[in-house]
Amino acid sequence: MHNAKFDLKFIKHHLGIDVEGIFDSMLTSILIEAGVPKPRGWHGLGDVAYRYTKTRLNKDLQVSDWSANELSRAQIAYAEKDAEVLPAIRESMVERLKKMGLVRCAKLEFDTVLPTAYMELCGFYLDLPQWSKVAEAEFARSEILSQEILEELQPVIEQQSLFGLAEINLDSQVQVQKYFRKLGIPMPDSTKESYLEALKGEYPIVGKLLEYRGCKKSSTSFGDSFAKFVNPKTGRIHADYRQIGAEKTGRFSVNNPNLQQIPHDADHRNCFKAEQGNMIGSCDYSQQELRILADFSKDKAFIDLFLAGQDFHTATAAQVFKIPIEKVSPDERTFAKKLNFGLVYGIGVQRFAESVGIEQTEAQIIMSNYFRTFSSVDRWLRAQKQNVLRTFQSRTASGRLARYEVDMDDRGSIAKAQRNAANMPIQGTGADMTKRALRLFYDEVIKGREHLIKLVNVVHDEINIEAPENIIEDVTEQLRECMIKAGADFVNAVPIKVDKKITAIWSK
Questions:
Q1: Backbone phi, then psi, for 372, in 5-degree steps?
Q2: Which residues of the chain have pLDDT under 70?
């Protein structure tokens, strides 16, 4: 099949049949070409058929009306031609997968198609009236914050308005930097949230700016426009889950709408609910990426922290600052937490200093202590960064391959590739774990009980289900066990931990 999810949804919905043993030529094309620059439509059947079999397919009838009770002869011939070319495509692709070491990863993706199709069929219930109220409140709050910020900026704005407060664009980095600096605020070179967080404690206006941006985004991106995505028959959102949404890491992306970017606050999340008589079960991997890093690096000190079963960030701080764990301060824990998670994304001294609100010299000392403590983590990260400049690629535990274009004369290009090369094996292996868990849960728990158990959402390391109140506890525990089992397929140096929660609403 090509784009098997589309066909599997149709067959499941109308015939109640699960199609097994699929080979998806679209997903295979994405796996093989990950990181290679390509034009639009590269993974469409027409382009794939020509690349792998030199067969030219006329796709003009793709946009014809396929809803008629009786298809035309031309449409039938078109469908036959599409089906006819698939075995030859598969034969050619299998050889490529073997040669590139992608067989295990490809099987993982093929196994994930069925639960993904089922998840889209299930959908996620959204309380639209409650959602609209939240959007209205967010818009009203953004207007209030905007006025308050402008009032505080008036003394430093050169040109006053004849008709009230002088206006500036609070979404403009240049203007925000200019006028905030005039207030004596040491604004960084970027006004991204991560750079401003460290300033909001000392400068309340920075906190207002961050809140304003959050409210504005919520009211525009997550406002009444969501109504169009609610199916009028089911009252649920049936989003489009793209299995390899992030080509290099293999992470899911979600469109129509993007359920991965729903704000974490209770106001928004609580609008997603279980239907009457049901509850929502949520399971998420605890410190998934750090456990993967421990497995990759084989750092004994890092591994021992997980084996000890203590709060990981507090224990890390105790190691780095050479103090008893009970004497770790909140600030020291924050430093350790920022470093722990920052490692995965290639955080540097400057970025770390800005994120915790300290001088770069102090940040350098803390980071140096960290890498002395966890020397094998340091070596693994350095090895990834060196390797990408030789091979221009990296892999996950499943063998998923990502390629990088690197301009060796451009320091920025080199730095970007090195960050990605350190991050990709970790994030990508996390995606592999989640996908394996989805299939295990579908096979071991959902099959035969589709009328009871719904798979409603996945957000990176979190899986959400819906089931009747009388079985939700057992089913959520089964989901947790499946996720642990899936994690153990890829990580064995440290135990896999999965947290679970049962609520009437989607909470974080």
A1: -70, -40
A2: 158-166, 508
- The CATH number that domain 1-100 falls under is 3.30.420.10
Which segments within 262-415 are labelled E, that is strand? Answer: 278-285, 393-395, 401-403
Largest pairwise CA distance in the chain: 78
Digit-coded pLDDT (tens) for 449-500: 999 999 999 999 999 999 999 999 999 999 999 999 999 999 999 999 999 9
Nearest to 371 by CA among 381, 361, 385, 356: 381
Count of Cβ atoms closer than 10 Å to residue 158 Cβ: 8
Contact in structure between 206 and 196 (CB atoms under 8 Å): yes
Residue 432 is classified by DSSP as H
Sign of the alpha-carbon torsion through 107, 112, 117, 118: positive
Question: What is 128-224's CATH number, 1.20.1060, 1.10.3480, 3.30.160, 1.20.1330?
Answer: 1.20.1060
- In whole angstroms, give the CA distance from residue 224 to residue 233: 19
What distances in angstroms separate CA 312 from CA 337, 462, 479, one per listed residue?
A: 8, 20, 24
Per-residue model confidence as pLDDT tens digits over 7-51: 999 999 989 999 999 999 999 999 999 988 888 878 999 899 999
Among 171, 211, 205, CA closest to 191: 171
Nearest to 103 by CA among 399, 449, 477: 399
